[in-house]
Design a protein that fits this description.
It is elongated and about 75 Å long. Helices cover 48% and strands 20% of the residues.
Length: 197
């Protein structure tokens, strides 16, 4: 029975890990006319470059010259953020439907409009950023607070477990001979995984 649980847990953990690695942390799906294009990103800076830097947009949306109408849908760790430019306009329109944010930025170039967006987030968009962080904690599988193995919550749980467990182990005299009849599981996750599957 234990072997079956361990095998099932290992298979489940492998499948979950593989599907988690398949998705980009950030991404943009751009549509210009009827032509959709996808760009993955590993950092917020790469994401914003994929939205507002003409040279970066051209790498995944050939034919873009900075004047066409383009819709850009960003996946920001699981939260959808819509950006758009109308034809011949430098106005960047941003909406985050999940938190009710709608803003527009008009610069002398589209890059200037993106810079205005960045400045707004740093200076005047604190309320929107706070709402976004709360939404990310709610929906993101990779949230730094609670959504991944290196998150703050995971580290706190691991530290608490290790602190309590290591005190018990230190007070006992365990030898390889005394443990021959015991099944040793390499990870507590393997024990708990079947409960949640």
């Amino acid at each position: 029975m234990i072997r079956k649980i361990i095998r099932t847990s290992i298979v489940a953990a492998t499948l979950l890990t593989a599907s988690a690695n398949a998705a980009d942390l950030f991404s943009v799906t751009a549509t210009m006319g009827a032509t959709p294009a996808y760009k993955g990103a590993n950092t917020v800076q790469e994401l914003f470059d994929a939205i507002g830097q003409k040279s970066t947009i051209q790498t995944y949306l050939p034919g873009y010259n900075g004047t066409q109408a383009v819709d850009l849908v960003a996946n920001y760790r699981g939260v959808r953020i819509n950006f758009s430019y109308t034809a011949g306009s430098n106005t960047l329109v941003m909406s985050i439907p999940d938190i009710g944010v709608n803003e527009s930025f008009t610069g002398s170039t589209r890059e200037d409009s993106q810079d205005m967006l960045t400045d707004w987030m740093k200076k005047n968009g604190a309320s929107a950023v706070e709402k976004l962080m709360k939404k990310l904690a709610e929906v993101s599988p990779s949230d730094p607070i609670a959504g991944n193995p290196n998150s703050l919550m995971s580290q706190n749980v691991a530290t608490s477990f290790n602190y309590g467990f290591s005190d018990v182990v230190k007070s006992k005299n365990y030898t390889p001979e005394s443990q021959k009849g015991n099944v040793v599981l390499p990870n507590l996750v393997l024990v708990l995984a079947p409960i949640f599957l």
